[in-house]
């Protein structure tokens, strides 16, 4: 097979993943309303991913108010979208490991509309700035300047990230503030660019909360229990190195088996867990995100 056909095949899969991701965002704006069940949102959007011909690259993330990242519904989540809230929907789709990652903010409180708009405009400014050879610090500066212009504050310790096949976060990052060095973007690279903004009087940082509902396979090690081995095998075969939800396993394995096995899998470091991230001062956060392919004279947004 010639190199050219391999490249265009990969590109075609990225573009298809991006098209599915865009449809899911549209669907999210239709189904996410005040009082909607969080679990239902996760299940509906993940279910639609499969029906459209993709697979989730990670569990659907729903970030209500100060919850910023890594929240997906646990198996019996009773949470609902609260009144007057600001809600981030962050979704990832892959086709045979080629990933599109994108997010939108939905506001159910007019006071937060500007906050959401600041991240949308910051994302546009970042996309405008991206071309081969541009330093990631310059892109971060464009994001920060835009968010500041609206009177808000970017989240310093969250970044966009380079994407490769079956890998959501590879070496390079795109900061959301100026002054963070990290090389330059190159033609052919793929990035998820994701500005996060919060109120001016917030800390502007996220911290770990104790909740953990998203996990990722790390490596095989010796395990005592048969159940833990079976779950690890299932995870490795079905999700490879992409993040998965404890909720996904509840459909396959009895609840008590999953809980017991997870303790062993975590202790033996066979799987990695993601803490839910919250804004450190408890202030509301908005997010916008696109996946882009760096091209000769700029970048192409695929989501």
* Helix/strand order: HHEEEEHHEEEEEEHEHHEEEE
CATH-assigned fold name of the largest domain = Creatine Amidinohydrolase
Overall tally of domains? 2
**Tally of helical segments:** 7
- Compute the gyration radius: what is it? 19 Å
**CATH architecture classification name of the largest domain:** Alpha-Beta Complex
Please indicate the percent range of residues in DSSP E strands (runs of 2 or more): 25-35%
CATH class of the largest domain: Alpha Beta
Helix content: 25-40%
* Biggest β-sheet strands, sense, barrel: 5 strands, antiparallel
The number of distinct β-strands equals 15
Describe the oligomeric state of these chains in a short phrase: single chain
Q: What general outline do the C-alpha atoms trace?
A: globular
Protein structure class: alpha+beta
Within CATH, the superfamily of the largest domain carries the name: Creatinase/methionine aminopeptidase superfamily
What distance separates the N and C termini?
29 Å
Low-confidence stretches: none
Mean pLDDT: 95
Strand order of the largest sheet: 7-6-8-14-15
Task: List the defining traits of the structure above.
single chain, Creatine Amidinohydrolase, Arc Repressor Mutant, subunit A, 2 domains, 5-stranded antiparallel β-sheet
Account of the 3D structure:
α1 (3-31) packs antiparallel against α2 (38-51), α3 runs antiparallel to α4 (136-149) and α5 packs across α7 (255-267). The model has no long low-confidence stretch (mean pLDDT 95). β3 and β4 form a beta hairpin. The longest helix has 29 residues, at 3-31. This protein is globular. It is α+β, with helices and mostly antiparallel strands and 303 residues long. Strands 7-6-8-14-15 form a five-stranded antiparallel sheet. It contains seven helices and 15 strands. It folds into two domains: 3-208 and 278-301, Creatine Amidinohydrolase (Alpha-Beta Complex), CATH 3.90.230.10; 213-276, Arc Repressor Mutant, subunit A, CATH 1.10.10.10.
